[in-house]
Amino acid sequence: MNPAVSVAGVSAAYADQAVLEDVSFEVKTGECFILIGPNGSGKTTLMKIMAGLLKPVSGRVQILGRRLKSYGRRDLARRMAFVPQQVPMDFPFRVRDMVLFGRSPHLGTFGLESERDHALADQAMDFTGVARLADRRMDQLSGGERQRVFIARAICQEPELILLDEPTAALDISHQLRVMDLMEKMRNEKSITVIMVSHDMNLAAMYADTLMLLHQGEMIQWGPPGRVLTYETLEAAYGCPLLVDQSPLGPMPRVTPVPGRYIREDLKTLIS
Ligand SMILES: Nc1ncnc2c1ncn2[C@@H]1O[C@H](COP(=O)(O)OP(=O)(O)OP(=O)(O)O)[C@@H](O)[C@H]1O
Questions:
Q1: What is the β-pairing status of strands 210-215 and 193-197?
Q2: How far apart are CA 197 and CA 101, in angstroms?
Q3: Residue 90: CB partners within 8 Å, gap ≥ 6?
Q4: Which of 21, 35, 45 to mutate to test the pocket of ligand 1 (most atoms within 8 A of CB)?
Q5: Lining residues, ligand 1, CB within 6 Å
Q6: Are 23 and 219 in contact (CB under 8 A)?
């Protein structure tokens, strides 16, 4: 089976500042692939390249078996949805209409939504817990509510591949779990491939099939969570003390940041 995404030798720069250096990886169809890394390591840049919003300086990107370059906008939107990190604030639209926009790449010439389109929008709003906000205006929502509406819109798009840049950053813990469980369900039931960026290593450890760690524009480790979330790798990337042990929930790593007051600087050991 073709990989859902194949990135080969991608480098990127803003003006003359290099931000990604020869990055290569593949994402299998139906897997949950989570990108982690310190601030400024190039995660959003890589997501924008995969979403076709930014051109790499060099390298090749294939999406669902085709060169990314060969897709038209609408064509790509039928197969891939992208939820950006910063969702726009100033939309005067109502929540229901915003979610329905997810159907636009699938609509015919006159752009009329069918009953099925409305049913999909209702379902997506239910899934993300925004159904009660359906008639509210987007600019009257909280940050987390707005983020959930954008996730609902992406689900409503019925993509084969969904890219989410820090989808849980503004969400409370219950909605974080709900969004991650939903992505897992979409993957299990519909073989949808999920690629996301997260700063939450514990959520990533619990949900990812594959993790990729970026550091200063380079991939320094990738693979199952147990291979990437090791003390040595994380310390090299983040440069701060972290404890890594096993999650009480199962055979996946648990990462605990260690406040300075627990460290004896002279001995470089933990005070327990
Ligand atoms: N539009 C831009 N113009 C110039 N430099 C940019 C632009 N966007 C990002 N950068 C720079 O590129 C580098 C990578 O940024 P990017 O947003 O990809 O990082 P990130 O890993 O997603 O960070 P974060 O975890 O903070 O969201 C950073 O040094 C950033 O300052």
A1: unpaired
A2: 24
A3: 139
A4: 45
A5: 14, 19, 37, 39-45
A6: yes
d(CA 155, CA 269): 47
Give CA–CA dist 140/202, Å, rounded.
Answer: 32
List the residue whose alpha carbon is closest to atom 2 of ligand 1: 14
Q: Give distance in angstroms: CA of 45 to centre of ligand 1.
A: 6
Among residues 130, 184, 142, 138, which one has the least CA distance to residue 162? Answer: 184
CB-based contact 61:67 (threshold 8 Å): yes
Encoded tokens for 233: 């790798």
The H or E element containing residue 174 is: helix 173-190
Closest CA to 145 of 158, 131, 159, 155: 131
Q: DSSP 3-state assignment of 163? A: strand
Q: How confident is the model at residue 268 (pLDDT cuts 50, 70, 90)?
A: low
**Whether ipTM exceeds 0.95:** yes
| Residue 266 pLDDT exceeds 60 | no
How many CB atoms lie under 10 A from the CB of residue 27? 22
Cα 42 to ligand 1 centre (Å): 6
Q: Which of 168, 164, 186, 193 is nearest to 35 (CA)?
A: 164
Tell me how far the alpha carbon of residue 122 lies from the centroid of ligand 1, in angstroms: 35
Instruction: For residue 125, give the DSSP letter.
Output: H
Q: What residue's CA is closest to ligand 1, atom 27?
A: 39
Q: How many residues make up the chain in this entry? A: 272
CA distances from 192 to 27, 33, 80, 125, 263 (A): 12, 11, 10, 19, 43
Q: Residue 155 is inside which H or E element, if any?
A: helix 143-156
Secondary structure of 76-124 in HEC code, one letter for each residue: HHHHEEEECCCCCCCCCCEHHHHHHHHHHHHCCCCCCCCHHHHHHHHHH
Chain segment 131-157, per-residue pLDDT in tens? 999 999 998 898 888 889 999 999 999
